[in-house]
Structures
1.
Amino acid sequence: MSATSDIATDAIAREAAGLVAHYGFSETTTVKLLSESENKIFLVNDPERPEKHVMRVNSGRLSYHTPRQIESELKWLIALRHDTDIAVPEVLHARDGSLVQTIGAPDMDKPRHVAVYSFLSGAEPPEDQLATGFERLGEISAHMHLHARDWTPPAGFERPGWTPEAILEDQLQWGAWQDGVGIGGETLKLLSRLEDVVRKRTDELATGRDEFGLIHADLRLANLLVDPERTAIIDFDDCGFGWYLFDLASALSFLEERPDALELVACWLRGYRKVADVPIDIEAEIPTLIMLRRLQLIGWVGYQQQHLDFARQIGPGFTADSCRLATDYLARFA
């Protein structure tokens, strides 16, 4: 992390800590950085409360990092917690009843929006239990999708659309895949051909109530917390409207080249079918949705080269692996 990044993180941490009284935490509350990816997550520990909390500070760069869209995300999270047995964090209201706060300071690059949740214990499923984890992911995804179909969002509800146009034209500001690591020459030609085929095939997919609706959009194993008592889902920051099976494509993020990738897909579908039917026409295009997601990730990895060690570590290899996946896909579907 650069010195500039350290200064920015310190400023954000300072301003975030200034919100503790707004949520009714005591003066002895500590706020410490817990993790960092697109957003910064802080652990909030109040000695006068039995439970811990987390404070999420959005990066502010994505098109849906607005107070209205974040509040809409939180309202779906509240509804899931109230209406279903899915284990999700409890959203905290501030003393004034608000769900989203905004912080800013001269030494911050931009204002940031903040939400506070209950802290959930648990760990990502271990490497040797991915099949079991994927089956559980599919089951939970089906429950969420059934809720989304029946739930009436409140007035003013606004979340992004995870459509091919939004992803491939970088309307949500994840990063254009053309700006990914090492994109040029034959790689650019190959991935451009991939984009053309993905666009054509997704143009023919149904977008009715049974196929398309409110989804998590980032339901990877990293966002699944397992402990002996329950399996919880976190990180609804990307939730929006898309094909329900795009949640399967998202689940496979960074795992697409594993030798057991097809088995993981089958496990996810097996879990899903325990709860709900899988749209047959969309199921046939799961490989297309996986490649749509992969193009999205190429852009994200490219943008994050300046910000995250993880992205720098996988950058060149991720593009090379994507080309192999694209070649295999085009041999089947072009």
Note: Strands lie at 30-36, 40-45, 53-57, 101-103, 112-118, 212-215, 224-226, 231-233, 240-243.
2.
Amino acid sequence: MKKVLVKFSALVLFAGTVLVSCSDDDNNNNTQQQQTIAQIASGNPNFSTLVAALNRTGLTNTLNGSGQFTVFAPTNDAFQTFFNSLGQNQNVNTVDINVLRNTLLNHVIATEIPSSAIPASTYVNTLSPISTANNAPTISMFVQKSGSTVTLNGGVDSKGAVVTTADLDASNGVIHVVNRVIQIPTIVDHVIDNPSFDTLQAVVTSTSGAFGDQSAVLTALNGITAAAPATLFAPNNQAFTDATTGTGFAVGATAAQVTKVLQYHVTTAGNVRSNQLQNNQSIPTITSPVQNLTAILGGGNVDIRDSANNLARVFQADIQASNGVIHGVNRVLRPQL
């Protein structure tokens, strides 16, 4: 009987040990938490410069907290290339802190976007504000996807980047590793980066041929500053085809007339976003003498009426740049030539 009791006690002890061990394993599994974006970056030596930049600018807590973010994370080599472009002796500790902070925010989207959800092309809003004003608009990013390749703001041939490793999942979003620091785009940069505006780019950069020398217009666009921003109504490629072929109004236009057409798409009335436009609002352009456009609102659409009473539909509103905003339109606006 004593032997039976001893064996029974040993069996109970063994069973209890197993149950406790299993319970501990379950507790460990339940309490193990997924890392945040900031924690993943801190644990990867390829992101040491990114971590230092986040710490210096006070953004670590943002990417370590609640919410859902998409972070396009430059590697150390990408940051070094960026610092080299700024001049000698520039590094994460010496670059202007405001430039560094706004540049970092230009890599962050306030929602989680896995690579599988990225369409062929789209614009997204970053967290980088155009000014220090409350509720200031934020910089737009142009995202393209071809196969599994994701390109941002035109890629390395422009001022953008390419995703090299996608979908590092975090508890508060996702990280996509990129091979360059994504610089904050100007109006001209956004035109260059979007293939839908290739013809506009070709016309503005023309120095001879069918469109003549338009270098003065390009100089004017490049001279637009954040302190005195402008708004560009940008015709897409099909709009230029319609205007310059067949019975299009710009067929046979002289260089001077092309200049006036281009100027008629720019207003220095400020950074005029679509929600600031009012129905029948007059919009002065930079033609000389000044010619006006008219905003026509209705049915949830924004149209721009030109001097010939033609309406151009805004198909892509509020492409935000550092020095102004672009609204894509489906017709070349016709001034009085």
Note: The domain at 37-184 is CATH 2.30.180.10 (FAS1 domain).
3.
Amino acid sequence: MSGSTIRTVTTGAASVADALADLPSGAEEEHRHGAGEALPPQSAQRGPATDCTADSAGGLTFDLRLAGTDAGAGGEDAGLLLRRRPDASGETEEVRLPLTPVQDAEPGTLRAALPSTVRLTEGRWNVFLVLAGREPRRLSPGVNDLRSLVDRVPHENRGWLGVRIPYATKHGNLSVRAWMRWPHAEAGALRMRDGALELDGRLYGGEVSATARLEAWPRRGPAEPVVADAAGAGGDRREFAAVLPFAALAGGRLWDLWLRPADGAEAVRVARILDDVPDKKRIFTYPAQPVARDAGQPAAAGPAATESAAVTAKPYYTLNNDLAVRIDRAE
């Protein structure tokens, strides 16, 4: 295996021109599997535990130790294989990283580096050990050092933001969650009071104008968004803040939150990805808030009043760590 990163794109579509358009240039080799070509098989035997260290720029290093029969196979062709789980179109990608010996470490210790300059398409990437003459094997998670990801500040001169967080799957395998965003609206603190969601955050890759607004779009149906002013109160043109009344969302079920930095600008999905938590939906939970009727609406009587009082709202992070609001009605 060469000393450079190798990227492979596999697609079920007729063309992968669009998928390859954003791949990095330079030292990386780009290959394509044919549309019907099978991916390499996976051995049922799991590989060694792998320690991951993240740097503040977005790079990752993977350290593992080969022992037993694996030790003799850790030659020049030893490598790490990152394989993205297929998307809705069936397309997937692979990135191969060379494994090299680590000096001043135990015999058989190897390291692979995923530089911050190598782009990983947004999604979940499974990690495999590749040894000469053997089938790829999933790796086990070891010790993660992700301290540099906490309160990370992206480099804005790059023109794109790559976030990679290693994690253990429910089956005990090592995977990497990757995001590719630019511009990016990072959610800050969430506060719920007076029947509204108070949100502040920071925009990377753009500026927040005086006409900036937060838009809550219903996930189902063609309805128009609910809009709230989002211009920051201070002098920092990258900060935004908004107050979103829950009563305005009572007519829908799920609402996705977007920041539109200025009139005519593209909306940017509001998310929280600049830390070391790969799946926030289960970690960041918020209490449900009762939704009062709009002040301009007459009070309902009888069963309708009971139904209105049973409506609750709560913000939450989706499986992609995007910010959303859910409206629930008691049966």
Note: The chain has two helices and 23 strands.
4.
Amino acid sequence: MTTVPASGIAVIIPFYNGSAFLERSLASVLDQSLQADEIIVVNDGSRPEETEWLHKHCEKRGVAVLDKENGGQGSARNAGVAAAKSPYICFLDQDDFFLEHHNRILRDAVPADDQRFGWVYADLYQADAAGQVYKTETVKDRAHHPKKFLVKMLVEDMHILPSAALIDRAAFEAVGGFDTQFRGYEDDDLFTRLFRAGYTNIFVDRAVTVWCVNEGSTSFGIHMARSRLRYCLKLTRALPDVRDLNYMFMRDCIVPRFGKQILRDARRAQRPDHKFYDYRDEIYETAKECFSLMVGNKHVTWGQRRSLKGRWFIVRARRFGLLQALMGRT
């Protein structure tokens, strides 16, 4: 009898009312050229009929299901890791799917002698919801790889998708896993904390996953807008400027990356016909805090400050009316 070598990999799949996609994603995990030792689907508070479907489908496949109350994708991922025993973790979003050699390519890239190993990640295909491919190279030319410079990691989208990564379990647990306040930006936050804790990373220049873009995903909704505001605040508090080393994080990273987006979201949220309108008060107050921190930073340039103030005036004009905005109402 041929013995199948242990891979040391646990695959965690968060599930939320995803019966339309899970059969495809789960099949891609089961069809790997290097099998995972554990597969755990975490049911993040799905509807009763979806939960029933999930349990029946996974029972047929011999796949474990973990049920929990709804807490978001980060919370579901954390629960999956807590339930797993393997030393390496791979995550898969329910609407994405692995290419055949995902596990093998990432596992083979793990160094044997690096006591500070944190994660290895690779490229991916971009596709529509049906899995029809738009392009076969998504992250390589959109950011620097591997990650070596904090400033570059902050000023640009990191383009590390957990579905195309393998993470050392000990490193993941050491930094506290995903921050569950985020339902968007939780990936950037995790890998930034791993980097700042001194864990190493490796980039493999091969696609291992198909990333399926759905218009109804959190990337285009209130959860992403809310998380963008919260992530901006978290970075501002965690990264004060270091003048002696010329690390002006607010001026060089946070304002260029988030300033326009945050104030654009705040402006749009004041429109009655916009999807953010029901959250206008929350978005306005958090954006106001971000704006105050940005313009109050002494290293922010005159041009940046003028641009931010101009955009904030438009937000206030939309919220209170032009006259009251001119009078300085905030």
Note: Strands lie at 9-15, 38-44, 64-68, 88-91, 97-98, 117-127, 133-135, 165-168, 200-212.
